Write the structure tokens for this entry.
Amino acid sequence: MQAREELEIQSAKARRSKKWNNFLHMVGNHSLLIALSAIFIMPLYLVIVLSLMSKGQAETRSLWPHPFVWHNYVEVFTAVPFLKWTLNTLFVSLMGTIGTVVSSVPPAYVLSRLQWKGRHTTFIILLSTMMLPGQVTMIPVYIIFSRLHWIPSFLPLIVPSFFASAFSIFLLRQFFTSIPDEISDAARIDGCSEFKLMMRIIVPLAKPAISAIALFAFLGSWNDFFGPLLYIVENEDLWTLGIGLNAFQGIHHVDKNMMMTASALFMAPVILIFFFSQKVFIEGVTLTGVKG
Amino acid sequence: MSQARVVASSPFKKKGELAPPRRKLKTPWLFIFLCMSPWLFGMVFFTAYPMISSFYQSFTKFNLIESPKWIGLENFHRMFFEDSDFWQALKNTVWISVISIPLRIAFAMFTAWVLTKPKRGRNIYRTIFFLPSMVPAVAATMAFTYIFNPAYGPINRMLEAIGIKEPPFWFLDPKWSKWGLILLGLWGIGDTMIIFLAGLLDVPTSLYEAASLEGASGWQSFRYITLPLMTPVIFFSTVTGVIGSFQYFTQAYVASGQVNDYSHSMYFYATHIYFSAFRAYEMGYASALAWVLLVITLLCTLVILKTQKRWVHYPNGSLFK
């Protein structure tokens, strides 16, 4: 009897110490995670704080705006053609997104849902173009566009996206492959044409993957700097946010605090989009192993 | 009993009756061709033709206005024996690859590993860690060159506050500018981290339980369970890291524009191609540079591929099933 009691006391002690241990572990883990979070947040926090400082204060290494100059967010639209840059970027990104989605779904469908001779080879070629450094094709492509008299204009930034991106095809294909074949077989037995099958059955089922490639395409062109640098830099009316922002230091009446205001506004849409659709992003990255 | 189940699962086949011959579907070649045509067109005009064309141009002198003039191997001779900028760019690129690829992998694995720990709140932390990788490179670079500025950026003030007497001048100091870029890259680790996180969550917990029953320490179970199972992800990030660092451009270009990088400490291979092609308009020479870049990345990838048998473990056989 006594032995049993002792055992119970011991096991209660063990349970308590285990609980205590778990608690300590939890505290340790969360402190580490909070510290890391602080590091990741820090630059974004500093950008916002600096963007709200006066010109004088922004050059004093201060950590808190005094006073808060909310007016910066109005002034940035008059100091530089910020609205025009935003609209230009938005236009290029939206057109690029439409182009990518429209042109990448059919190849992905054919590469995943149909059996045909040469499919495997085509897919391997597609994968290898994904690995090809853009620098190798950059110059002749530039020459093609300049012969077409498309430089400077938005066309070189938009038109190529209507000819499918290997990355989007790859992501969509991975997703299409996971849809059971029976669905297609049933539709085919009912006499459904391939086109209808693709548009009416597979595309609606693949909405998550399609929104993933749309998001990646949108952010890809929103964040793109190299394309605009090649094709639109010569005409200031066509400048995108990236080009405009990079030119900031050359514009004399623009101050450092304003630069941060503009950066904050440039980041804002991306951050908003991300908060509302992070699941799509994270699944997209996990599915393919790459971003954009 | 088992017979009944077979009958139930195949509607065409009754006992003793042959299944009707499966109607072979005709391959819809026209449909396939139409669907593939956007990609095919892009492949021909934006990949295949440009590759052939730039290969040819790499043996020519070409300034966009006059037609290309064949000069044989002169571009390559100039690159290796006369162009000090080429060596500077190559040195910088190799330096940053060697330092930043292992650092990125270690940091991504560490942040992912920390994320696997908590029972609650993982998604919030994951969002915070992932977010910076979405920020436009131009904005991120401008922010970094500003906040790391020794005269008016707050970072050095914080470093001084925690007892670092003479914090580096970061982007303004040729010795430290690349470290600034590396920090910028580590800040945007999110997408790599997600892949590592997916890999870590895939490791069966039973393996860890077995190890702890056998009395393995935390380090041992990391070394002999986690690390081997993560080698495919490490392998993948190494390959994409090498390819990526030879195309590293935007951050370096923006940063060196912000701080007037006279000493070329942030002059990388992709920068050299850009300047040769679109500032000096030496299209032939730039094409030669681009082809050398392709050869270098291919060689690096091949070397990593060759060694993979020795250190990469695929639990289900090959990556390309």
Notes: Residues 2-51 of chain A form one domain.
